[in-house]
Specification:
1 helix; five-stranded antiparallel beta sheet; five-stranded mixed beta sheet; single chain; 3 domains; rod-shaped; Immunoglobulin-like; about 45% strand
Length: about 240
């Protein structure tokens, strides 16, 4: 009987497992599986500006390697599958953070990309115009109805309205020269409650049934120099996101 000694064969990853009856049994070991390439972080395309007053934000993503899907996490919440593009709505004032990761078809979660932005509470501007409910005469009073327009895609709360007379010029036929409207007209400012105006809506004090006692009121001095004068007004206000 031929005796075959146990030995290791130089067959790369092959090793002798047993020697018996003159036969050599070989077990092939392939070693650890080569890991699949990691999914890189996606690039964030569409995104809101770093500071905005808009209470919603849309994001889109693109990859060097196609991802089967994406998962998103907003403001530290648990991640969930999200569309591409994805829109987050009803964002409150303050700083927000979105984190997005690609998902492979085999369930792998790729590297994360993130974006941080701030939703400002202060509204930068809105339109105000006025309409006298009656002719203003020297020594008399008149209430001023205001129209307020919200140009934003979210509701605003208007908490203050201010009316300021601007200097006007008397009609040429009176030949009385310049009217100092800032002195000749005294304004009792708006004293009603805050007004909530929906996105892209225009309201008036009358349409909101605001008590007329709270409307701006103009009191004209008995100044002959302002008789038949044309006077304009400047309007300002304060508002925030509702």
């Amino acid at each position: 009987m031929t005796r075959i000694s146990r030995r290791t064969l130089a067959l790369g990853a092959a090793a002798v497992a047993a020697v018996a009856g003159g036969a050599i049994a070989v077990t092939l070991s392939t070693g650890p599986a080569t890991p699949a390439a990691a999914l890189p972080a996606p690039a964030i395309g569409t995104r809101p500006p770093l500071t905005t007053t808009v209470g919603w934000a849309t994001f889109s993503f693109r990859d060097h390697k196609p991802a089967a899907a994406y998962q998103c996490a907003l403001d530290g919440r648990s991640p969930h599958r999200c569309a591409n593009p994805v829109t987050f709505r009803n964002l409150g004032a303050g700083t927000h953070l979105v984190v997005v990761q690609p998902l492979g078809a085999d369930g792998r979660v790729g590297a994360a990309a993130s974006y941080r932005w701030h939703v400002a509470k202060t509204v930068k501007g809105f339109a105000i115009t006025g309409h006298l409910t009656q002719q203003l005469r020297p020594g008399g009073t008149a209430r001023l109805d205001l129209a307020i327009s919200n140009p934003y895609p979210y509701a605003i709360a208007v908490s203050a309205l201010h009316v300021t007379p601007k200097n006007g010029t008397a009609a040429a036929s009176t030949a009385r020269g310049r009217c100092d409207a800032a002195k000749a007209i005294r304004v009792t400012q708006y004293a009603g409650a805050a007004l909530t105006i929906q996105p892209n809506e225009t309201i008036t004090l009358a349409s909101r049934h605001v008590d007329a006692a709270g409307w701006p009121q103009l009191l004209a001095a008995d100044d002959p120099g302002c008789a038949a004068a044309s006077v304009s007004f400047a309007y300002s206000g304060r508002a925030k996101r509702a």
